[in-house]
Amino acid sequence: MKNKLNIPKTFFGFLLASVFIWLLINLSKEYTTEITISTVYTNLPIKKTIIDIPVKEIPLLVKGSGFKLITTSLTNNPIMLDLEKINNKKDTDYYFLTNKLQSEIQDQLKSGIELISIKTDTIPLKVGTLHSKKVPLKTALDITFQLGHDLATPISIKPATILISGEQSLLKKIKYLSLENISLENISESTKIKAVINVPENVRTDITSAEINIVIDKFTEGEIEAPILVKNAPKGINIFPKKVKIIYKVGLNNFNKINANLFEVICDYNQVKNNETSYLTPQIIKSPGAITLVRTVPEKIDFLIHK
Fold it and tell me: What values do phi and psi take at 89, rounded to 5?
């Protein structure tokens, strides 16, 4: 049977103490190293806007103790760059000269960290003039309904339009803003949903969400008879039948509101002259907005012309 190796607990104590002392000694030494630090742009004029994605990090060569360098890398507080000190190259092209930012960046570094150099000559930036325009909002809904249910009215958004601001060339490309994608399955009741507006980068707006109003009703089939009006008809024309049956789908809440006066059905005799057909085709040119899936019976209308 093998003997167990007995290591005194004091050994581990001395080992930990030695490692700790070694770390203290090495972290107390000064080192020169390169770090990458994030940037934030401040003091943007009211009528100006940043175009595209600006430089978000800059490399710095710094000197400091191991303690300070580790603390800096862990906290990584961003460097503020004042846009009032930016230089204009042409049009929307601007830039910072980093040799003029040395003292400004040094003041923002942690105490005990010395900035030796900025490892880039310039920081480019595109700045444009701010413009505004109104654009509509559009939903991105994926809806399925319970059997026999459907939309009673078109989906509405509140607000329907919003004011956006940004650089003119960017705004010209934006025709509308879409809302976040939302899926609704097997629904049978009206509902209101708050949805986030998808706002492109470098576009500003005070409104970040909109309300979607979805009105749902249980639908049934209805039918009604309406007279036919013949356009461009010659004298002596007689049609058979003189009325058509209109079959439609309507929500129960609107079922009793539907009557023949809400429909207008025509046949155009030019159809016969142009296409040389022997019948007329009824067309519904007026119908209430509450109905869907409209069809007529019959689909062909016969005629005679008495001379």
Answer: -90, -60
Identify the helix (H) or strand (E) that includes residue 68. Answer: helix 66-75
> Which candidate, 234, 230, 155, 162, places its Cα nearest to that of 187?
155
Question: Which H or E run includes 28?
Answer: helix 9-28
Strands 161-167 vs 122-145: parallel, antiparallel or unpaired: antiparallel
Distance CA 150, CA 249 (A): 10
Nearest alpha-carbon partner for 41 in 77, 78, 82:
82
Q: Could you tell me the two tokens for 18?
A: 């030695």
Residues 6+ positions from 289 with CB-CB distance below 8 Å = 153
Residue 2 has pLDDT above 70, yes or no: no
Q: Is 64 buried (19+), middle (13-18) or exposed (0-12) by CB count in 10 A?
A: buried
Amino acid at residue number 250:
V
Arithmetic mean of pLDDT, 222-242: 92
Structure tokens at 113: 């960290």
Range of lowest pLDDT (1-10, 59-68, 85-94):
1-10
Per the confidence metrics, is the pTM higher than 0.90? Answer: no
144 touches 187 (CB < 8 A): yes
pLDDT at 278: 86
pLDDT class of 1 with cuts at 50, 70, 90: very low
Residue 270: φ, ψ to 5°? -60, -25
Q: Is the pLDDT of residue 18 over 80?
A: no
- Asked if 160 and 212 touch (Cβ cutoff 8 Å), the reply is no
What is the CB-side half-sphere exposure of residue 228 using CA atoms within 13 A?
27
